[in-house]
Amino acid sequence: MSLYPPTLVRLIRELSRLPGIGEKTAERLAMHLLRSPRVQAENLADSIRDARTAMRLCSLCFGLADAELCPVCAKPDRNTGVACVVEQPSDLVALERSGAVSGRYHVLGGILSPMNGVGPTDLRLRELFARVDSGEVSEVLVAVSPSVEGEATAAFIREKLSGRARVTRIATGIPVGGDLKYMDGLTLRRAIDNRQEL
Ligand SMILES: [Zn+2]
After folding, report:
1. What is the DSSP string of 77-109?
2. What is the CA(59)–ligand 1 centre distance, in A?
3. What CATH superfamily classification does 6-54 receive?
4. How far is the CA of 179 from the centre of ligand 1 (A)?
5. Considering only the top CATH level, what class is 79-171?
6. Residue ranges of the domains in the chain?
7. How far is the CA of 11 from the centre of ligand 1 (A)?
8. In this structure, what are the phi and psi dihedrals at residue 87, rounded to the nearest 5 degrees?
9. Tell me: the pLDDT tens digits for 30-79?
10. How far is the CA of 187 from the centre of ligand 1 (A)?
11. Do residues 64 and 70 touch, judged by C-beta distance below 8 A?
12. How far is the CA of 48 from the centre of ligand 1 (A)?
């Protein structure tokens, strides 16, 4: 039998379900919430509920949005002719933080992986091709991860869009600060393949 009252037990249990939060941390967080000003705890509860209620997918790129368009697609200064294809919304945010992408995005929701039963119809590829066919997008920049599955996904997109749009792929290779002797074969191969004139 728990030494805490049931309402507190429930709070600790819910907190301990969060990633990286063990029982002890959940207990500490719960105590903190009880000690902090009431309004602070209520703001936390409200923000969780509001985010869950409002969150939807951008009707254009399938990134996270709480309106018809996500914050990136809603920006007036984007190069709308370029769609940067990523796997997940978190990849979109990482690329956007880098400031390197001037176009809009397209979140696939994964990559092709026959081994795991993920085929073309499981991804938002049809929606990507529709953006090309509508004339909105003229360049598709494939920015999925450089893995065997990622390369297969890029090749599939390239083949399907052949003659319909320019399809480009992010260059990959040795990361800044990386050490050659720790690189895997695929990374080294891509680094050599994507070499530039000096
Ligand atoms: Zn969007």
Report:
1. TSEEEEEEEESSHHHHHHHHHHT---EEEEE-S
2. 7
3. RecR Domain 1 (1.10.8.420)
4. 36
5. alpha beta
6. 6-54, 79-171
7. 35
8. -80, -50
9. 999 999 999 999 999 999 999 999 999 999 999 999 999 999 999 999 99
10. 30
11. yes
12. 22
